[in-house]
Amino acid sequence: MKKRSLAIVTLVILALAVPVQMLAQQSKAEKEVRAVIEESRQAQLKGGAEGAAILEKSFADDYTRIMTDGRIFNKTQTLDNFRAGKTKYESFEISDLKIRIYGNTAVAIAFAKTTGTTYSVATSPTGVRLTQVLVKRNGKWQAVLTQTTRLAS
Predict the structure, then answer these.
(1) Closest CA to 75 of 88, 64, 86, 87
(2) Which of 111, 146, 117, 114 is nearest to 129 (CA)?
């Protein structure tokens, strides 16, 4: 009876230890992703060549940006827009950020409110729902996709 009880207790401890370790890893990954998102937000506020240089590291080579009107831009087009001043923000606030980690992939969903211009068009006064997919490659998280959805006024 004692051996059986000891075996059950051991199994319970092992069963609890694995999820705790997984949570710790996810917590670290989530912090890393949050840092990349914040760095990208700050770079977009800086704009111009300085902001584009930071974003170049934050965006994967195969990065795609889908705008609220359905237009699609790749990494080069996105960075060129910042360098040319066609995308310039006076303010850029992110709230309600939720991050899910799936191994080396992260999905971030948030509410973003900006003032300024995006691809030479005034930003939405009601804000947008922002979805971003990031992938960890060579130990570094990079955005591979950003999509914005305009909210009803």
Answers:
(1) 64
(2) 111
